[in-house]
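Ligand: adenosine-5'-diphosphate. Inputs:
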Amino acid sequence: MEDVGKELNRIIKSRGVDGRYRQMMEEVLADKDVRDFIEDHKEKLSQADIEKSFAKLYEFVQEKKKYLAGDPSMIAPGYEPQLSLNFHFIDVTYVPTDELLRLKREEEIRNRVNSLDMPKDIRKASLRNFESDSGRKEALVAAFEFVDNYEENPKSFNRGLYLVGSFGVGKTYLLGAVAHELAVKGFETTLLHFPTFAGEMKQAISNDKVGPKLDEVKRSPILMIDDIGADSMSAWIRDEVLGVILQHRMQEQLPTFFSSNFNMDQLEKHLSVTQRGDEEPLKAQRIMERIRYLSKEIFVAGENRRNG
Ligand code: ADP
Ligand code: MG
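Predicted complex:
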């Protein structure tokens, strides 16, 4: 430290420069991290090297101050400035903080869940702090089982869940929790509110966007169709949208989940009458064959958890 101190003083003195510059240098060279860094690398740093690096040392001291104060005007928010030696030149590197890494990881996880028209609170759903009771237990166990099996063997066919239960028992929440858990493990899920999606598909006819929208959904590695049967369906939505999605997923053995207020038998009846009132039981049967193949029916019971 003795040597470095002398060295630094010499640098300051050797500069017959104006007071402001001198003041800046003094501040920089008084910084403990700067002094320690120079001390640690004194074998490799000459006085000229230190002088040459002065702008970087100054940047370091300023950015460190901002970093410690949490000043948002810092060059790289979330990154901690550190001195590094780049041959004979001192440089500042910005190292991501643990907090930033945590936020980035969380963002990556969130990005793996593609939620289409889903309520916001579903994004916070998690299996790990899922409030369970007897009415939800079977569904929760099946959910964990699915996640375990899928993680172990994502390429083989894993049957999804068909969650049945009345309004507010937590079906959508459970889908969101499964999607989140899968995202933590690195898997991508598309979660869509089916009645809204059906409406958007109808709109898409007019601007020729049906194909790409349908493709994206049908190819999703894991698909969750929320609230199926909540609205009456047109024959086109049932056969050309839902039917096409399910056919593809069966062929490609892609996991598919559902939630509904109807059990499977009730949904079959619901699907056999179109929006226009036509009775088409065979069409409904074909859809149900695919749903039955893709998923396992599980009842969810409990009080309505929705407030108001
Ligand atoms: P459903 O889809 O069956 O109609 P929701 O999943 O929308 O019901 O749940 C209703 C409300 O209860 C939502 O606000 C949801 O966030 C909350 N909720 C449901 N299940 C749980 C749970 N296990 N833990 C905490 N909150 C829950
Ligand atoms: Mg719901």
